[in-house]
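Annotated sample (chain length 418).
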Amino acid sequence: MDRHIPFESLHNFRDLGGYRTADGLRVRPGRLFRSDSLGKLSPGTEDWDRFLSLGVRTVVDLRHPWEADRWGRVPADASFTYHNLSIEHRPYDQAAQTPDVDPGPYLAERYLEVAEDGTKEIRAALELVAETDEPLVFHCASGKDRTGQLAALVLGLLGVPEPTITEDFSLTELATRALLADWRARNAGRTPDWPGFGRAPERAMRLYLEAFRARYGSPEAYVSQALGLNAQALSETLRAKLLEPLPTAWPALTYRRATPSDAATLVRLRDTAALWQIARGIVQWQPGEKDEAHFLEVMRDGEVWLAYAGDHLVGGWELWWTDPAAWGPRPPDAGYVHRLMTTPHTAPPGTGRRLLARAESRIAATGRPYARLDCLSANPRLRTYYESAGYTVVGEQRAKDGGTGSPYAVTLLEKRLG
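Output written by the structure step:
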């Protein structure tokens, strides 16, 4: 489910594998990683053993040399080579920015500066990625800005669509709290002046990609004109080494009812799905809207289910037995499906439909003849999805109070269970 590989000391270590290209291939899992500072690793720890177990053979440190000297570099080991390539030539202090600074335009401008100034180092980093046939990790301090730029360039050259590149950038939002805690620990408990510190709003990457495209035309044109490389040859090499066909067989899905110990996992599953939506301009969920208490309450009054493909979590959903906020008072003749979630890029094809069918079978097993759900009236794509699954629009609630303090309109859909 989670692209973040769990470490105690690292908060933003992620596998870029699984992202799909426009021509139907995907990035090979376990080949290209991005991270926050590997200087936080220490030999003889579980984190160090976990890192070595990934088989990394090349480490690319995108920080300034003074950052590596002050905060430490990855410990030396015979299993990998280390390269320090500082792609940022105009340092700036994000923590010291004033609250009126808008993170989106501000970060996009800084990223464009790096693209202009760091051509020598960016070229060297791309050559390292293209040369190696074994796992490589690149990182900066938080694994967000410089790391996000290099990830965007590599993914662009591989043919990954821009919404996915933007989504990948925004996944740092799942690590923001931990990154802030690290900063406070290094700075005597102070809080950064800038509310945007440690944040990765999709708007920053979207604006950067728009400015990058306006200036250079495309990733290939940038590689050719600014970096002086053969863009076609580089792209072909990267694609040959880092892409693979989509799997043709997937493990069968299994299901289990969630328990209170799953609450944190459910929050993360929902927030990950929310970031996927935001990167594609779908205004529906926001990260942080549902906390562990929400899922614990649903477990108490209804049911929450999780779905797995093999050992990997691929989705989940909530099942309510009443829903007065959307449907008003009703007899006990239906189950109400909420928060149907699948893991972006890693769930088997058709997982959402299978989860919905499983929820319907659970409702039918209780003797209730109807499955009901609602979706934002402003999301016609989702309405069409449910209609294709056999649901019929039966009304609209123009002012549903979902607990956010801002009522919103939803379309009501119902399915008779056979």
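Annotation: The first strand starts at residue 14 and ends at 15.
Annotation: The chain has two domains: 14-245, 253-416.
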